[in-house]
Amino acid sequence: MSEKSSENLIELDTSESIWESFFTVFPLVVIGTREADGSDDLAPKHLAMPMSWNNHFGFVCTPRHNTYQNIQRDGEFSVTYMRPSQTVLASLAATPRCDDGSKPITQALPTFAAEKVNAPLVQDGYLFLECELQQIIDDLGDNSLILGRIIAARVAEDAMRLSGQDDEDLIFTSPLLAYLYPGRFTEIANTTKLPFPAGFKR
Length: 202
Ligand SMILES: Cc1cc2nc3c(=O)[nH]c(=O)nc-3n(C[C@H](O)[C@H](O)[C@H](O)COP(=O)(O)O)c2cc1C
Fold this sequence. Notes:
This protein is about 15% helix and about 35% strand.
């Protein structure tokens, strides 16, 4: 079986981006920042995840985007984890800017203000993080890694894990959004417990 599958492997050209040649699973979050003129900025990101067990969050962003420039200037940003019903909203937040550099769609999206950072959050998400910039790592090709310290976090009541409650039921009742790069998504409602090895510790 393993011999057969290794015969069937296709070598990918690493002088180009490999990530469009197959599907992988990502979250879909919306990063909120404040534009230089004080208006809201929102942008979807899938290259985004916790960066430690100690409440750090990071995402990949190009320095060409206002998101990067706003964070570099203000040193803070917000993160909204989107629900499966919010893919259109997330996608709209990536609407190209007008010739004058504005992105009017952002003002039409339903938001509320973060509490500890000066940035918008998207209404009806299920997890809301407020982050202070810790570090930017540039020169990852055209991209940069933006690392933040989470200074405030709120989770929707229906998505909160409670002791004594069944995790399978929780996810079934409040399904999760998975972005399948490039260009597809799915709703995750049916899940199974991971078979950890006996005695496993983090
Ligand atoms: C589904 C989706 C996922 C995206 N993920 C990323 C990402 O992980 N990193 C990134 O730099 N841009 C990503 N983008 C592109 C930016 O969100 C988009 O260019 C946005 O308009 C930039 O806005 P800004 O100039 O307000 O920062 C994504 C776009 C979409 C539609």
